[in-house]
Amino acid sequence: MAFLSDTLSRVKPSATIAVTNKARELAAAGKDVIGLGAGEPDFDTPENIREAAKRAIDAGKTRYTAVDGIPELKAAICAKFLKENGLTYTPQQITVGTGGKQILFNALVATLNPGDEVIIPAPYWVSYPDMVLLAGGTPVPVVAGLETNFKLTPDQLEAAITPKTKWFIFNSPSNPTGAGYTRDELKALTDVLMRHPQVWVMSDDMYEHLVFDDFQFCTPAQIEPGLYERTLTCNGVSKAYAMTGWRIGYAGGPVALIRAMGTVQSQSTSNTCSISQWAALEALSGPQDFLPEFRAAFQKRRDLVVSMLNQAKGITCPTPEGAFYVYPDISGCIGKATPGGVVITNDEIFATALLEETGVAVVFGAAFGLSPNFRVSYATSDEVLREACARIQRFCASLV
Ligand SMILES: Cc1ncc(COP(=O)(O)O)c(C=O)c1O
């Protein structure tokens, strides 16, 4: 009898976590490493949020809570959805979990049966296909490449839908490309979805607050109220509030789905950390003045990285609308060799050679379903980014 499950054999560990670990190991061994792999802001959690957590500890808010969240936080999430997204949810339609990741996972485990298909625009966040596989479903990646600025077209969506399609996962601004859909672009997709009533929409709005220039964030149930009854609107505090370690994600959706997700959570982790829930309440309902500051810092870094990478030989780097990632195309480097004789035949070899020869850690594109590319997380200081991009430029110039 095999010890490991058949399900696990279909799943790979997260490539982004693997790169981050490898960079940590090299740094611990004394190598001069710049990690551009991890998807987390370098800012500290704002002070008012940290203070709210300390108060929660001192007030004894240290026991189990309701599985899907304390009422105070659920009320704040309802208020947030109404104010920022024009979406009306009651507390029964809200669930709180251990990061955005658990929210998505709960929804997939609660709804997927063998044979159910989940449409995932590629490049995608590394975890989507593997979470679908773990939940017993079939991921259906649909590639949206450089020619459409990494955005899925309505024709592509229409062509991918079958009678077995259960979910369409939508992520804007996107990890790994930073691409954000305008209202018109999203409306064109929701028009397609309106013609297919069996398809549910999982909107992953994790990077809602990290948008640049005059880009206006929008989410499917807001753009097409006809989809409200079959949309799960997912979000969290990890990225916008610099709270990755606190592990708070949440969603709003139809009551039956939210209850089913609560059942999954009640038999796995129970409630997420009580202290973190009180901190998230402060994040959502306290002062929001640091958000424009974070945004401005990220926009400056985006401009720096896009400009410097476009000056690297063989690299084309589009300018994203949001998040803190860029996803440069390295077609111009494929087929060339490093001075050490390594032939760059794909983006994984490119990323490995880049790390070994320059100490810059990036995540190769194959992990996100579109090659040849790599992902840079620019959530680090301008100075570090300037040095990393200069090393990438020198590395590319050295290829023959
Ligand atoms: C698109 C997207 N969704 C969800 C998550 C999960 O966030 P959390 O840390 O809250 O689990 C991430 C984190 O990288 C992400 O990039």
Offer a few descriptive terms:
seven-stranded mixed β-sheet; Aspartate Aminotransferase, domain 1; single chain; three-stranded antiparallel β-sheet; Aminotransferase; AspAT/PAT-like; 2 domains; 400 residues; binds pyridoxal-5'-phosphate; alpha/beta; PyrdxlP-dep_Trfase_small; transferase; Aspartate Aminotransferase, domain 2
Number of strands: 12
- This entry's quaternary arrangement is single chain
Poorly predicted regions are none
Main-sheet strand order equals: 2-8-7-6-5-3-4
What is the terminal separation in angstroms? 51 Å
What is the 3D shape? globular
Just name the CATH architecture of the largest domain: 3-Layer(aba) Sandwich
Q: What's the CATH H-level homologous superfamily of the largest domain?
A: Type I PLP-dependent aspartate aminotransferase-like (Major domain)
Structural class: alpha/beta
Query: Helix-strand pattern, N to C?
Result: HHEHHEHEHEHEHEHEEHHHEHEEEH
Total DSSP helices = 14
The CATH topology of the largest domain, please? Aspartate Aminotransferase, domain 2
Chain-averaged pLDDT: 96
- Strand fraction equals 5-15%
Hetero groups: pyridoxal-5'-phosphate
| Radius of gyration, CA atoms, in whole angstroms | 21 Å
Q: Approximately how much helix is present in the residues?
A: 40-55%
